[in-house]
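Below sits my pick:
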Amino acid sequence: MRILLTGGGTGGHTIPIVAVTQELKKRKKDLVLFWLGSGQPEEQVAKKNSIPFQKIVCGKFRRYFSFWNLADFFKIPIGIFQSFFLILGFQPDIVFSKGGYVSLPAVIAAWLARKKIIIHESDIVPGLANKIASRLANKILLGFKTRSLSGKYIFTGNPVAREILKGDPIKARKFFHLSKNKPVILVMGGSQGAQFINNLVHKSLGNLKQYQIIHLTGIKNTSSSGSIKKINNYHSYVYLNGAKMALAYSVADLVISRAGANSLAEIAARGLPSILIPLPSAASDHQAVNADVFKKEGASVVLKQKDLTPRKFIKIIENLFQDKLQREKMSHRAKGLAKLDAVDKIAQEILKR
């Protein structure tokens, strides 16, 4: 079976593709994969997972005024043209798109080539590329159950790599140099990092000495302060791979995070209480909408970035650690939101003829 993959631009679109392809490879020994994307990070991820990759020209959709919108608009036809001939050469049985602006030329080309198209939308509010692609798709797989499902809309949940569900706390404490005597806070801001969260944590460290902190700063938002890294209870990393993330989750007592769909899926899968700080500039405010689901279920405390100060941030953390019952309730509610069979369901839908 031949499957064309497309999607990328951020880890939010590439990491789920890897989780799905790992499951597909288990089910289909004769599987042939080919990935179309714009470059980083998907090219690097594809190479690491031994998936042939081809870079295509893509135009980015910006929901604000920019002269780059005009230039990028003319890139789309070029990307469609490239994708069309690559699809004719590869002859896929299925085209699976994870969304992002990089996926649209390939989806349009697949539709022109009369190929079966399956897309997956992680967020409650779909991205612009997936809104357009949904008109051309044969199946639309949903990460959140947001509508009365019928026809081509199928609720699967968001895929989480099986590796994330593992993680030995003993190995984790050794790897991160953690004590058993202090609670652990895991701070993360998505694959690119979150400058606001990074600054907030750094300003608050002096009043968080009773906790141990594992901080994922992200590639684009690494702190330049050497003195911060010398604080004994603070451990910062630019990036952690799947196995190391599993270790971090295994010892975390609380997660502080943005509200991207993949992060939420992992938090739920691990059943962890969380403080969510949605990215205010996210398209259509989709992170706030995602976070609201967790808030309404009692799984997370949701804070607005514009209202957040170090003093308020510290107080909320202290209140949570003083209330063990609330943390246990949040953990239980988070587990209730997990869709641990999402990878299986997505693979099943892709492999259906």
User: Anything to note?
Assistant: The mean pLDDT is 90. Residues 6 and 36 are 5 Å apart (CA to CA). The chain has two domains: 2-155, 163-337.
